[in-house]
Amino acid sequence: METRRGRGGAWIRPALLFLALAWALLPAGLAAGPGPSTDAGTTSLYWSIARDGEPVGYLLGTVHSEDPRVLDFPDAFIEQITSNRFFAMEMVPDLPTLARLTEYMQYQDGTRLAEVAGEERYERLQEALAAYAMPPEWIDRMKVWAAMMTLSIPPSSTGLFMDLSLSLRAAGARMKVVGLETLEQQLAFLEEMPMDQQLELLDHALDEYRKVEEVHRTLVDAYLHNDPEALMELSDEQMAELAPAVRTYFMSQGVDARNHRMLESLLARLDEGTVFAAVGALHLPGENGLVALLRQRGYELQPLPFPLSVPQAGR
To answer: What pLDDT digit, counting tens, does each position of 203-241 carry?
Structure first.
């Protein structure tokens, strides 16, 4: 995807890179913590939603990847999506949102990243970000959390991530595409994260960035096997390397609080018509996951056959 300038000279491609991981599955040490293994939300990544026995929609856990294997949508699956009135995703990536996102990702008061992170970290970061084809002036003004998050996904080659691809199919079928959060709501937990925690996460990302491709492939493989338990085990392994305060903050503010906020938005849409909801897979399981929260509000959720192909051995 060609880099191009948006409003105010903002770079759109870095924003698209960021959105790939802002949509919840953060593979390089930032994924959400686990829910209880006994919760039914850990048994599937794809669910039907009903109320009083009447179908009202679907809930799909996504992986925020541009791997071709997660973009190979069967016709029957597309028909299930487009049979609904709304397509709901965590945040709609329209151009105004992307332009605002680029502003959030950078210091607007002249502050330089090297001043906040220190020259040694900054030099390491420049080396780590070389594969992301970001202009030096962009990196120079990045916020700490934006730099850390960018390193948590592999460099993008197409910009067509699973969530975006699904939303384009929905829009092409004249569905109403809606966000369950605003950009400001989604970024609040990063903007408000204590700086010592941001720096710890940046250090972790700098130590681990060479492994991000391998971790991402493992994550996608687990996803294509419809294996939420394996996804959470991967998350556990990564999160175990971080300080307890960081893990607690990410879980409470980056996952649980967002789940409850997205639930309220989803309930409002379900009152208006049928909804196909697609959110990061680790927003589904656990006592504060969307599966359990919807059931608490009286909805019936049943697991469905996973709509994508399981990878063959040796692939």
So the answer is: 999 998 898 888 888 889 989 988 888 887 877 777 777
Q: Which two tokens stand for residue 42?
A: 């850990």
Phi and psi, residue 77, nearest 5° = -70, -45
State the helix-helix crossing angle for 95-104 and 183-191, rounded to 10 degrees: 10
**pLDDT tops 50 at residue 9:** no
**What's the CA gap between 32 and 21, in Å, rounded?**
12
Q: Which of 119, 118, 140 is nearest to 129 (CA)?
A: 140
Distance (Å, rounded) from C-alpha 195 to C-alpha 285?
Answer: 29
Question: Which residue shows structure tokens 């392994």?
Answer: 237
Q: What span, in angstroms and rounded, lies between the C-alpha atoms of 131 and 41?
A: 37
Lay out the sheet containing 275-280: strands in order across: 176-179, 86-89, 275-280, 54-62, 46-51, 300-303
* Amino acid letter, 278: A
Look up residue 150 and give its amino acid.
Answer: T
pLDDT tens readout for residues 255-305: 899 999 999 999 999 999 999 999 998 899 889 999 999 999 999 999 999
pLDDT (mean) for 76-88: 97
Read off φ and ψ for residue 47, nearest 5 degrees.
Answer: -135, 145
How many whole angstroms from its chain centre is CA 149? 11
Q: What is the mean pLDDT of the chain?
A: 84
